[in-house]
Design goal:
Layout (H helix, E strand, L loop, with lengths): L3 E7 L9 H13 L2 E7 L11 E3 L10 H13 L3 E2 L3 H7 L4 H7 L8 E3 L4 H11 L4 E4 L10 E3 L14 E5 L4 H4 L1 E7 L2 E9 L14 E5 L3 H12 L7 E8 L5 E7 L13 H18 L2
Parallel strand pairs: 1-2, 1-3, 3-4
Antiparallel strand pairs: 5-8, 6-7, 6-8, 9-10, 9-12, 10-11, 12-13
Length: about 290
Amino acid sequence: MTRLRAAVLIPAADYPEDHAWAFDAEAAALEGAGIEVVARRWTDPAAEDGVDLVLPLTAWGYHARQSEWLSLLDRLETAPVATLNPVALLRWNSDKAYLAELSDAGVPTVPTIVVDALDEAALAAARARFQATELVVKPPVSAAAHGTYRLAMGDAVPAAVAGQRMLVQPFQRGIALRGELSLMVFGGAYSHAIVKYPKPGDFRVQPHLGGRDEPVEAPPEAIALARAALAATPAAAAYARVDMIADEDGDWRIMELELIEPALWLPRAPGSAERFATAIRAQAEQILAQR
């Protein structure tokens, strides 16, 4: 087995959250597949030096330093290394406006519009278009529910995001009942899933906001939707987390595709670490063989 050396990207030094719980599990899986792992901060101007492979698996905080992130992608585009997921996919996935593109391609998604400057007129137009009294607004470049608000009829535009480019969606009531389903897909094959629930009275499922999660077996129709969504992206993903929710009719709709630095819950599913590392190694070797 050829020994590969991989830079697994980690957060900048001033990033406040612990990343070790994700990095350690993913690094152990890769080492088990014969991939030597070195941790590099994604903000390091030489993050890609001296390795065969770059993996932005824990490049957390890129949404707050977008120009630096895009500069890194520009470098990786011409660097003599394999980058997974591919740079074209990372760039596309960096802005959640891709949800509108997926919808235009016929992939069922949570209805989404992108507004250049969020104001009261934009909210009124969205309510009319969606026939919805409650909306959710979120930045197109964000993580961990940062800048995300639920707005009832009569609520004003939050001052923190007024005038900003934002996504606007109808509020999905099913999230409190059925949760948000996350499917992990490695090398195009479904691996495992979890379901995430918000705390009572909230709609955000992130753990730091009181959300909880549990392993679940994804239904066939959800797996089929995940595959259809990934097939509509600009390049093949070695790893992916596909987040979706059931609408009021019980049909699954894509909420997000997480193709940059998703939590993958490898310790929660036996065999998933091996599936993950095998997919990474196979795609990396394919790219390097073509260089």
